[in-house]
Amino acid sequence: METTHRVVVGDARELSQVDDDSVELVVTSPPYPMIEMWDELFAELDPSIGDALQDGDGRAAFDAMHAQLEPVWDELERVLVDGGIACINVGDATRTVDGSFRVYPNHARVLEAFESRGFDPLPDVLWRKPANSAAKFMGSGMIPPNAYVTLEHEYVLIFRNGDDSRSFEPGADRRYEAAYFWEERNRWFTDVWTDVRGELQALEDDHEELRARSAAYPLEIPYRLICMYSAYGDTVLDPFWGTGTTSLAALCAGRNSIGYELEEAFREVFADRVESASALSRTIGRRRLERHREFVEGRRAEGEEPSYDAVHYETPVMTKMEREIRFREVSGIDTLESDDGYRAVHEPLALE
Q1: Which one of 180, 196, 243, 330 is most buried, by most CB atoms within 10 A?
Q2: For the CA atoms of 210, 257, 66, 216, what is the dihedral angle to 10 degrees?
């Protein structure tokens, strides 16, 4: 099996190199309005944002920042197939503007924007992202009433494009081989993820200037979402590509990917990350299988034996739908002739 991974240097407000109805899944994390690290970017897109911040008008700046995201959401509606899924990782912002502290509810604005475009909201996920500070409050400290709860979570908002779910041909191998284990389903499809942690973006020393402009989420987040909401051979789009974490996850998961990114320099960062894809995909597959076998041993210790056997691996499974599960590893990667990405060859996971 082969997959392609294209990187387009361009503005996500116009995904001109992505055809209509050509993407099965979107996994992305946009710049968060009213988070200071993104002020300069938003002000470059709309100078009135910088003026509003300078004038102390937080509400106007918040509205104008979200207005810059609206064309991207329009494009996602265009490129997603009917029944395709969009997963938007976004955090709310807390900020003091003109002496007044408040929360700016980014997740509510994004939810409203997608619903107004005909997307059906699905149950979302909260993932815990602990603050660096040990303090669990902001404001006046130990006396009421002017202390504020700290934000230690982000949202993964999940939307379906239209009313109907995707359909597949009966017995589609690429769907059944992309199954997940029963216990993975129970962990992944819960509305609170406490086992995923935020991580600093590890950029090489010669990419120091990019460090301040990157806000990569942990690889585990896009990898889970890709496994949950797509099948082998599907195409995953990230319109806010950054250091390419979504594309790296798609590589490891045997899906195609497209990324849009304004900063050309991030492609160099991703070129370094691609070198790890073969070993990383192998490690992820083996770790999932190892964890499943540990789960089986735990069930047996409790006197419960799974009812079915996997076809491709020597392990029992809990349900019929898991029997065909088959992990893929990256066995080779070449650059595309157009020099805008990579072609990867995937083989069934080789076990030692």
Answers
A1: 243
A2: -40
